[in-house]
Amino acid sequence: xxxxxxxxxxxxxxxxxxxxxxxxxxxxxxxxxxxxxxxxxxxxxxxxxxxxxxxxxxxxxxxxxxxxxxxxxxxxxxxxxxxxxxxxxxxxxxxxxxxxxxxxxxxxxxxxxxxxxxxxxxxxxxxxxxxxxxxxxxxxxxxxxxxxxxxxxxxxxxxxxxxxxxxxxxxxxxxxxxxxxxxxxxxxxxxxxxxxxxxxxxxxxxxxxxxxxxxxxxxxxxxxxxxxxx
Length: 230
Hints:
Elements lengths: L2 H28 L4 H22 L11 H15 L12 H12 L2 H9 L1 H7 L3 H14 L4 H14 L3 H11 L9 H10 L1 H4 L2 H10 L3 H10 L7
Helix pairs in contact: 3-4, 4-7, 6-8, 7-8, 8-9, 9-10
């Protein structure tokens, strides 16, 4: 075989390989099974099942109590596999929060701490207000004094639910933590009583003396001494 013919066969082989690769790529891009649609249906089905369990007041019981840790880990893996998909957050009590509810309810104390440290991510998303509120409730049951839970509970109440009194409650509780930033007591006070109170020294003094706890009053005096001037 001459060098010219060998060269021609080599070119034809490369062209053939390129056509095969293009064909595979096109097949993958076509998605004949419509994986995205199937995933949407699966997530919607689980979300509906979650709503039904909540409506009946039935908790999800694992069938093998001795393998609870393994099943919680498996739920975590499912959660991580779908957390980047938009359909995971669709509707109230969405797929993501059905998984979070299960993990929060059955996880051990160390896992709860890890979950609470991830609270910013879930509450900032804010698309599923009902699911996020239920998740917050479960976190509070498991770790009611956690700064992360209380602080981001205040964020969720203010930015997602638009409930200033609820946000003030959480921020006031969070302000008692050594981890709390110095602005939290004042923020809680503003949300609870409004800007009108701050502009009236006499009314502000009455509220500070009668409706604010001594510990909170001391914190406010450190960061807002002008509020206590006579």
